[in-house]
Automatic annotation (TrEMBL):
Keywords: FAD, Flavoprotein, Oxidoreductase
Protein name per Swiss-Prot or TrEMBL: Pimeloyl-CoA dehydrogenase
InterPro entries, per the entry: Acyl-CoA_Oxase/DH_mid-dom_sf, AcylCo_DH-like_C, AcylCo_DH/oxidase_C, AcylCoA_DH/ox_N, AcylCoA_DH/ox_N_sf, AcylCoA_DH/oxidase_NM_dom_sf
Residue ranges occupied by any Acyl-CoA dehydrogenase/oxidase N-terminal domain in the UniProt entry: 8-117
Domain Acyl-CoA dehydrogenase/oxidase C-terminal: 224-366
Cofactor: FAD
Keyword Flavoprotein: yes
Family to which this protein belongs: Belongs to the acyl-CoA dehydrogenase family.
């Protein structure tokens, strides 16, 4: 079960609210994403000082001893404020992969630096053939004297051009056994990183591994455990994305309601039109569908050894709810909803990106069906 009690969690979420209200502004965010590094470094250090980076990590690594469910309230607030700092990619993916892997020496070395805001490990798993499935990959790791030689390519590595380290998945070939998925820890300067901005104001990268040699000490998993660790980390990441999505949808609902109460047509606020009221109710229902499913998933998280079906249904609902709420918010704002100066379109872009990450709706519906 999570280490944080209810009082501690309330205090944490209150600190997040105060910080974001005082220091996070949409127009400032636009200036941060338009220039390198794409986020506010001072904010990242403040995240470390406030303990947010250490929230789901063990106390021996400088963390607060919580688990991934303790990050959900924080992620909801990040979604409401359109936070652009790479919390999901560093804490939720890269850090969790290191924490859950077999190599405790690597965890003991790197996680305290992550918690202090000094290291930014990022998970690199997706390839052009993956389509959401972490076990569909072509990158390989072959045994050489003293270690391993990695070759291949990773695409759509979220937060990749901000990383100091990469947790890279690859098929290993040993003896006559078939290939299995394992994880390796690489430094950013050991491989070719091609960064790019994503549509939602975040950052991504393509990685090229051209005969990169690593020693045995940087092999994070053994005996084919890499695939299981990847699945677990991505399922946790889906919960964090769903929480962020709920926060973004709540803000879109509030913005839309405020606008329709202000915008007048035929001498009355358009919020008085029954057909628009029905659409806003449908938006609310779509958001609540995701919120309730997230709560049910989080409540069952420690009660089952497998979360495949829960996470698949949650991701599919995130796709559906995010698409509907975003589309309706833009349309109800009319032409102004399409402008870059208004935050509504940026929320819609973030919800769209969350729907595409880790596999789309169709992929996860098939996963949920297969898990029955």
């Amino acid at each position: 079960m999570a280490f944080l009690n209810d009082d501690t969690r309330v205090m944490l979420e209150d600190s997040v609210d105060k910080f974001l209200n005082a220091h996070y502004d949409f127009h400032q965010r636009r200036t941060w994403v338009e220039k390198a590094p794409g986020y506010n470094r001072e904010h990242w250090q403040r995240f470390a000082e406030l303990g947010w980076l250490g929230l789901p990590f063990a106390e021996r690594h400088g963390g607060l001893g919580g688990d991934i469910t303790d990050t959900l309230g924080l992620m909801r607030r990040f979604g409401a404020a359109l936070v652009v700092e790479p919390y999901l990619s560093v804490v939720g993916l890269g850090g969790q992969a290191i924490a859950q892997a077999d190599n405790q020496d690597a965890a003991d070395s790197l996680l305290p630096e992550l918690v202090a805001g000094q290291a930014m490990p990022v998970l690199a798993w997706e390839e052009s053939i993956s389509r959401g499935n972490p076990e569909h990959l072509a990158a390989s790791a072959r045994r050489i004297d003293g270690g391993w030689r990695l070759e291949g390519e990773k695409v759509a590595v979220i937060g990749g051009d901000l990383a100091t380290h990469f947790v890279v998945s690859a098929q290993t070939f040993e003896d006559d056994a078939g290939p299995v998925v394992e994880l390796f820890l690489l430094q950013a300067d050991e491989l070719e990183v091609t960064g790019f901005p994503t549509m939602d104001g975040h950052r991504g990268a393509r990685l090229t591994l051209a005969a990169v040699d690593v020693d045995e000490a940087r092999r994070l998993t053994r005996d084919g455990h890499g695939a299981g660790v990847l699945r677990q980390v991505l399922e946790q990441g889906i919960m964090m994305m769903a929480a962020e999505g709920v926060g973004a949808m709540q803000t879109l609902l509030r913005r839309t309601l405020d606008y329709t109460r202000t915008r007048r047509q035929f001498g009355v606020p358009i919020a008085s039109f029954q057909v628009l009221q029905h659409r806003m109710v449908d938006m609310y229902i779509a958001m609540k569908n995701l919120e309730h499913l997230l709560e049910a998933t989080a409540n069952r998280w420690d009660q089952s050894p497998s979360h495949a079906r829960d996470s698949a249904l949650l991701k599919a609902q995130l796709c559906q709810s995010g698409r509907y709420v975003g589309q309706q918010a833009v349309q109800l704002h009319g032409g102004i909803g399409m402008t870059d100066e208004l935050d509504v379109g940026h929320y819609f872009k973030r919800l769209t990106a969350l729907g595409l990450l880790f596999g789309d709706e169709n992929y996860h519906l098939k996963r949920a069906w297969a898990a029955l």
